[in-house]
Amino acid sequence: xxxxxxxxxxxxxxxTLLTEGTYPHSHGGVSVWCDQLVQGMPDVDFHVIAVTGTxxxxxxxxxxxxxxxxDTFPLWGPPPAGRAPRxxxxxxxxxxxxxxxxxxxxxxxxALFAPAFYRLADHAADxxxxxxxxxxxxxxxxxxxxxxxxxxxxxxxxxxxxxxxATDLVEHALRPLAAxxxxxxxxxxxxxxxxxxxxxxxxxxxxxxxxxxxHGIYLRERYLSFRSEPYRWPVKAVMLGLFRLLAxxxxxxxxxxxxxxxxxxxxxxxxxxxxxxIRTVYNGVDPAAFPPAGxxxxxxxxxxxxxxxxxxxxxxxxxxxxxxxxxIPDARLRLFGGTPRGGEGYRTACEGLAxxxxxxxxxxxxxxxxxxxxxxxxxxxVMLSSISEGFPFTLIEAMSCGRATVSTDVGGVREAVGDSGxxxxxxxxxxxxKAALRLLREPELxxxxxxxxxxxxxxxxxxxxxxxxxxxxxHDLSGLRRPVPVDVTADRPAPVxxxxxxxxx
Length: 505
Fold this sequence. Notes:
The chain has 3 domains: 14-78 and 179-283 and 471-478, 3-Layer(aba) Sandwich (Rossmann fold); 87-172, no CATH class; 301-460, Rossmann fold (3-Layer(aba) Sandwich). The protein is globular, with a radius of gyration of 24 Å. The chain contains 19 helices and 12 strands. α2 packs parallel to α5, α2 packs across α9 and α14 (393-400) packs across α17. It is an alpha/beta fold. It comes from Streptomyces abikoensis.
């Protein structure tokens, strides 16, 4: 049995940042946000637990001295050490894993998720989980389970190959359970999903206060991304079930959920977060660091900044630009930002689309720019074409630089822009082109919107407001420490045969 948790808050909070695919190993909006938070609070001791891809990623940010440690847990590197259980321990694992899988596949069994999830975490702690998931028994269990007639997956006639693929994905997804569960301070997940795993385990075992910040909605983005994954439906059902129930577990257990916009709040309330535990904290920028961009380019130019990724909707932007160029032949589109590893195919497809539409000579992929302000200054208008966003930094940075914007109506975009830019539906090239043409043809409107955008940032979205908001939250949550004895031997799962006969409700 774990003992009671430790002392109440000290004058200096200790915060463990939980990240996935972002800070401090990559660039992008969430990483910028993390760096702002860390740099803005030299009075707070930070530790980072980073879920990464391969484990070979280099640090992309210079870390200040009050970041005491960075621990990485790669999803696709060598598996965590450990030995597969045998005999009674293997049977206990399989009983737990069956409950876990049933919770993902059977809506009537979703209540099994939390107890099974935390028992799997115990298997991770004793070094048996990952080896067990790589064993034949785990895949064969799934192959039998999801073919039960009452489960929706049975209609798709899943194969053993499907079971092997799904089990492999689950094993990789659960690897963050190998991270130590912080017993002190606060855990702060800067996204939903796999980053939350160490925070949930720390809360369960030690009562460590868990804070969840969502910029975009992780679950929604998984739904979008899995449309193009090469797996059959049963495999997707397992993984999307995992992401959905993990999101709900995070919402239920967070001491506070801090969406970056009101749009996210609706998802979080629907996912089970009590409304009184939701506090919106907008992203902010330093207006002095993003001053007015100065003269516009002589040639009509649309600029875009971000990472080259399908979620950014660049195919919509390129199609919209092709319509713009039909009306304004000397227009050009400049795309600033890096292509993440694994995203090369998407960039090639975008370049191919530009060539197919006959605008390749006017569309340039500029790569990363040393000073992001140059990307905003490069355009008469700054474009945002994403199909999913939270409260995008590129948008409020461009607004601070006094540039008019055309953006898709996703996430908190409309909250950010107000009436200082034009907002269009996502995946609608015609609407985007119409908005861009209007601003290109009306310089007075463009200038008025740019001035209004900068004033809006100064009044509502400054970095100081963001930092002060989270400093207050850290100090508030430091007082939430409570003794939580957890008996990890209690509530063991029923035997596998009992479950197969419907013995678990």
